[in-house]
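Hello forum,

I keep getting stuck at the same step: I have a sequence, I want structure tokens, and every attempt I make locally crashes halfway through. Rather than fight my setup again tonight, could one of you with a working pipeline run this one for me? It's a single chain of 154 residues.
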Amino acid sequence: MTEHPDIPSPLSPVQQAAKAFIESEHPLFTKLGLKATRISEGEISFRLTIPPQYSDGDHVHSGIMAIMLDTILGNAVWTSLDRFVPIATINLKTDYFTKVSPNTPLICSGICEGIRDDVAYSTGRAMIAKTGELVAMAAGTFMVGTRSKSRSRL
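Reply #2:
Ran it on my machine without issues. Output:
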């Protein structure tokens, strides 16, 4: 039995890696206590609470929201792949709709909209868990299977 009904059992190896990366391997997200609430092919969602140390006055700093969405969108790409390969953010656009106070439970989710050649496209959002109010939305493009500079075709 899984800890959440939207997390299939068993997870694919790539889905397991994406979940482990955010919940226990990424230093920042480990501090934020991210816990998976949904994982499926191309979709991922986590619950978290941002502590006051990441605030800008009385509200969560917008930079932490951008970092969080960038990572969630990238992980949505990973869950779309049949094997784990490196990815890198090409572009990220984040729009903010409301400010949120520290210690407010949030849900952050991402969807891989598609992959063409070696570029993936993802969208996502951060919402207040209790009300569903939209805090921020993001759209990103990611290079799939990034290579070292010496082997790059660019």
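The CA atoms of residues 14 and 78 lie 7 Å apart. If your local run keeps crashing, start a new thread with the error log.
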